[in-house]
Amino acid sequence: VTRVEYFDGLEWIGESDTAPYGFTWGNVPTGGYVITARLTDDVGASVRSVPVLIKVGEPNEVLFLVGTADLSTAPGDAAARDYLTSLGFTVVVVEDITAQPNDAFAKVLIVDSSTVDSGSIGTTFRETAVPLLSWEEANQDDFGMTGDVQDVDHGNLPEQTQIEIVDPDHPMAAGFPAGSITVTTDPRDFAFGLPGPNAMIVATAPGVPEQATLYGYETGVEMMDGFVAPARRVHIFLSDDAFPA
Predict the structure, then answer these.
(1) Which of 33, 101, 153, 193 is the most exposed place for a label (fewest CB within 10 A)?
(2) What share of the chain is helix, strand, coil (3-state, %, to 5)?
(3) Chain segment 86-138, per-residue pLDDT in tens
């Protein structure tokens, strides 16, 4: 070995060409980091180490999964990011095609936007013990929240403006009384799911109780097909461009 380089994800953070090949990484901001080392030998061959996960301080970071990291082209995602930031979170935006399980390390919440390609996310974070808030209707079955029959177990309701509060006492009802309430200024697609019997259903499509538009599972309860929620799981009705409305 002639050189060892160190990386945080894809970002180079230091190197050493002297045994025992270490370096001091100073002034590291609070957060979670995925560290690897790349070893190069005297004929130029190199190999990458397995990752090591480290946490600095107590990060207050949200992993925001999106279809494109350029949020200037995704106003719904940009508005959601800005709202999360206003609540005091540090939002880490990750594009769906690059998402890896380690991205959730040291995060306090995973947010799954409907702009993702559901197949790119798939079951990547299914067993991750981090709370999840999702509005990608086609990922509900991947997280074990519903069955997998499109437009039956989950789907989109076109041109909606209202949801119906069915559990006004639950905190997710935000103090609204039972009944239909208008939640968007103009019609948008709303994502729905048909969750299992252990779900807390807070709101549905008006007059359609089997189409839940706001529901969740607590940590440790059985969801679908015997799968147990590794952390809190919540579905909300938003779609790609609903948040700004």
Answers:
(1) 101
(2) 15, 40, 45
(3) 999 999 999 999 999 999 999 999 999 999 999 999 999 999 999 999 999 99
Residue 9 banded pLDDT, cuts 50, 70, 90: confident
CB atoms < 10 A from the CB of 101, how many? 12
Q: Please report, as a single letter, which amino acid is at residue 191.
A: A
Please list, in sequence order, all residues whose beta carbon lies within 8 angstroms of the beta carbon of residue 94, skipping any fewer than 6 positions away.
63, 64, 65, 66, 69, 103
Tell whether omega for the bond before 59 is within 30 degrees of 0, i.e. cis. Answer: no
pTM of this structure: 0.91
pLDDT of residue 20: 92
Burial class for 119, CB neighbours closer than 10 Å (0-12, 13-18, 19+): exposed
Least Cα distance to 121 among 133, 132, 108, 112 occurs for 112
Nearest CA among 42, 50, 3, 41 for reference residue 23: 3
Single out the residue of 138, 185, 179, 136 nearest to residue 160, CA to CA. Answer: 185
